[in-house]
Amino acid sequence: MTDSSARADTPGEPDDDVRQADQAHRGVPRAEGPQGTPAETEPGAGEFGERLSESAASRMRTHDDGSLDVMASIGGVRGLVEASVPAAAFLTVFVITEDLLSSSLVAVALGVLFTIARLMQRGPLVQSLSGLAVIVLCAFVAQQTGEARDFYLWGFLTNAAYIAGFALSIAVRWPFLGILFGFIRGEGVTWRQDDERRRRYALATWIVTGVLALRLMVQLPLYLSDAVVALGTARLVMGLPLYALALWIAWMITRPSAVPAPRTGGAVT
């Protein structure tokens, strides 16, 4: 991922020389047009790609060797805790007290504490508030229906939406992880000119889609049978860690082939 300090005059877009150097370091083939000139980015992709690149760069991290730093990309231990603890607290309090209101209040209170801590450290406002908004929404839905299982209902809806979106992106030959990883790696959308790389990005997108579908297959029957404890446990086990694993596998199988080093030394015999 290109360092944010190496920028061209246009905000959010790396300098061409920096981009090319980063591609060479990571083994990304430079797409070329006729007579060896750089290929043009496909019409309409530039603005969308720039915005997606900026968003992805703020969330995902890579090692110096180009591999994905999974823990850093999900926010490290802190990100894992903030994503898991409110839901775990809701489940724990509900098991002990069987009181929906108390369980919801504890979950929301933890979300508020995490959000305040991030804001005090001047974290991004949207990122800081988005997690709290989801917790509040889940608690609100559960309170409206009076069913503890409905604390997890929003997760089903978002999973289904992501599955539909990812599948559609593959169907129209714009696999989502190709867009995401392509801009992080400095490829832009030039990978679409390479059938093999497009197939790999489609496979990577299917892998993440499969994890989301697996969640529904396991958790939806638990929801329908009102097995709240089993449902809450499954949500924790199949949450961020499993998604991070799928993301890492997707990153690894889409790594560009290394550019062979030029030969040096004596004459070829």
Number of strand elements: 0
Low-confidence stretches: 1-46, 259-269
Order of helices and strands: HHHHHHHHHHH
Regarding quaternary structure, how should these chains be classified?
single chain
Task: Write down the overall geometry.
Answer: globular
Protein name: Intracellular septation protein A
Organism: Nesterenkonia xinjiangensis
Keywords: Membrane, Transmembrane, Transmembrane helix
InterPro entries: UCP010219 (IPR016566)
Structure description:
The protein has a domain at 73-253. 65% of the residues lie in helices and 0% in strands. The chain contains 11 helices and no strands. Mean pLDDT is 77; it is low at 1-46 and 259-269. Pfam families: DUF3159. Keywords: Membrane, Transmembrane, Transmembrane helix.
What's the short story on this structure?
By secondary structure, the chain is mainly α.
Which key phrases capture this entry?
11 helices; mainly alpha; 269 residues; disordered N terminus; disordered C terminus
Describe the secondary-structure layout:
Layout: H1 16-26, H2 45-57, H3 70-73, H4 76-97, H5 100-120, H6 125-145, H7 153-171, H8 176-185, H9 195-224, H10 228-237, H11 240-253
Helix pairs in contact: 2-8, 4-5, 4-10, 5-6, 7-9, 9-10, 9-11
